[in-house]
Model the fold of this input.
Amino acid sequence: MCRCWGPYWGWVPCAPTPWLLLSLVCAAPFGLLGEETRQISMKVISSWPNPQNLLHIRAVGTNSTLHYVWSTLGPPAVVLVATNTTQSALSVNWSLLMSPDPYGGLMVLPKDSIQFSSALVFTRLLEFDSTKVSKGATQPSGKPYPPYSLAEFSWNNITNSLDLATLSAIFQGHPVDEPTGAFANGSLAFKVQAFSGSGRSAQPPRLLHTADSCQVEVSLDGASPRGNHSVFGLEVATVGTGPDCPSVKELHSIDDEYAPAVFQVNQLLWGSSPSGFMQWRPVAFSQKQRNRESAVPCQASSLHPTLAYSLPSSPVVQAFFGSQNLCAFNLTFGAPTGPGYWDQHYLSWSMLLGMGFPPVDALSPLVLGIMAVALGTPGLMLLGGGLFLLLRHKQYSEYQSIN
Amino acid sequence: MEEEDEEARGLLGDRPEGDNAVPGAPRALPALCDPSHLAHRLVVLFLMCLLGFGSYFCYDSPAALQTQVKQDMQVNTTKFMLLYAWYSWPNVVLCFLGGFLIDRIFGIRWGTVIFSCFVCIGQAIFALGGIFNAFWLMELGRFVFGIGGESLAVAQNTYAVSWFKGKELNLVFGLQLSMARIGSTVNMNLMGWLYTKIEASLRSPGHMILGVTLMIGCVTCILSLFCALVLAYLDRRAEKILHKEQGKTGDVIKLTDVKDFSLPLWLVFIICVCYYVAIFPFIGLGKVFFMEKFGFASQSASAINSVVYVISAPMSPVFGLLVDKTGKNIIWVLCAVATTLVSHMMLAFTFWNPWIAMCLLGLSYSLLACALWPMVAFVVPEHQLGTAYGFMQSIQNLGLAVISILAGMILDTRGYLFLEVFFIACVSLSLLAVVCLYVVNRARGGNLNYSAKQREELKLSHSE
Done:
């Protein structure tokens, strides 16, 4: 666990190198300098004859472009590519993509402009029986039920849920063939939202985003759990950049203004900053009205290298990277006691996904203002009072007593 | 009354045990039974200390069971803090009436018994609210508990003044306060553990377990009620034997006196209110703060939350002695308020071990109590003292009632950092008032900051 007290009155990455220096020295050749604003374009690339979801989000800055290619061909996946030119484009070859060996079906051209590329795949929806927790760390969430493979879900048509005003799109799906009928009235949704500038979302956990990031909101609604105290989880796989798998860092922050009672930010960096990043607050919400009462803890396991065949494969990731071994980790939402999925059969969790420098939270101006007044006023008063007494003393010392 | 006739007969006639012999009669009482003897008065002191134990034990039971109350009764922090607000509301008015009720209406003995009954019944209703899963019943229970709680403290003090005089009195007050704080500490550390034990053995819904736990806490109130009854008996017996007057609070409350209060006194009131609203609501919400920010387990979080009380139990007499010996009350108040400010800042802006901050908080809380309350006696003439103290208690309770709810609301919407910043703002307001008080006192040549020697000289010159 890293505890770092940083120059922004909040958390800083625990890398010993000051990231400001890094940004000046190393970012320039990478072109991931962290743009203030970007032009966002969202395009649904349609296939023929079987419609498959392929959404291309292009965020163009002054001298860099970020590509997010979202698809539900297979399990929901996103390919992240950062290029150092404004002219890079995505090329899709559907016949290759749909073939057994899709490598080359997805390309970002020109290839030499690619500064960073990786992918994120949401492979399985996990469910645990939290009443049967065995002693020891093997299954801290409980006894697992058979997971739902997200490759066997059927998804909505993305064109219908694309909203260009808010730059968002929703992928909503349920299992194709489900004998128990758990998803009869339920669905799993991924809401993807891109941003053209920095800001803070209005909904808890109110993540701070920049133009270099997009927000992903995962919500499970209405699915019937298989037990009375089921805890759900998500298995996520990434393409590692290097021999070792990246690790999830827990950054401690004093600031819980925007996510009450959550003093931690979890961060996954694919390499040393600036690089691809995943950032989230370890909290999920068990009610549509997201407040402190419905907050449930979110635990992330460590990333372990996984052989490609043991996970549901994503043709989109294979199309860009070829056959790669992936790094997988589990996210679980909830605890055996307290609020949970069982309250309203609802669960929602948000994260940021981006390339460049992860956003850094800072104290709000209101807090800084109150502190300035609270500490400054008594000090000023003491000074003023001292001066007043000194002047009075001088004034009275001019008198000479008669007797 | 029949009992009095019996007793009169007992005094004149033979009785099997030598309990009620008249002093001066040929047969002397054993030391333990002689009201004028130290041994008997120690027994009475013990009972007086236990009198407040139940009330202070149960006052902080919401804080010790915060998570459980919020989960089992399905309430947010704002509604949870109402449990503290309802305790304070009746005391806004009762602080003025307490002395009057004891002196004119009930008498000290019946008054103590009645207030102990209120405490007992209030806690029982509070527990029943848990058993029947009715939060409004819990709020009613706290209201009834509040009616008895603070007035019981007034009664306790009146007993102390009646049985102990002069130099002993400070020690007795100190011991009573220490015992009260021990009650709070035991509550903090015991109730959470008790809840888990009952949860393991009972297969009931959460609110039932909560109710049962609180009902067990009610046992301490029954203990206090028993002490009240025994004390009433012993006090009446002592009155008969020693021919002493029934204790009176001596408080003369005249609300019109409020317009005569001087500026230094109003500043003392502001210091008091702004300081205590940053302590008690914080302790009420502290357990979950330590669990969520610093990652403490439930039991350790309760322990650290009780540190303020644990420290104040032994340190109050020590600081009392210190302030008595050195004087300079304003400087001590300044130190205490500044230390509290530092402590809150440490808790808000760092991850340093909270034991340090809480120890500092405990020390400064004890120091402030010893230095601030006597200041009222320095600026107010004796015939207005009752009104001044009553007013101070009243606005303190008003502040606590309002700020408790506000603190709950802030926590639900803005989180712990903002809540701590809010408390820092309150303490800084108190600090501002202390600084103003120092300047005003200095400018007017007042006596609030006299050293002990100067005060002795003043007393001597007045008595000449």
In short: DSSP finds seven helices and 24 strands in chain A. Chain A touches chain B through 35 residues (CB under 8 Å). Residues 365-397 of chain A form the longest helix (33 residues). Residues 124-317+324-356 of chain A form one domain.
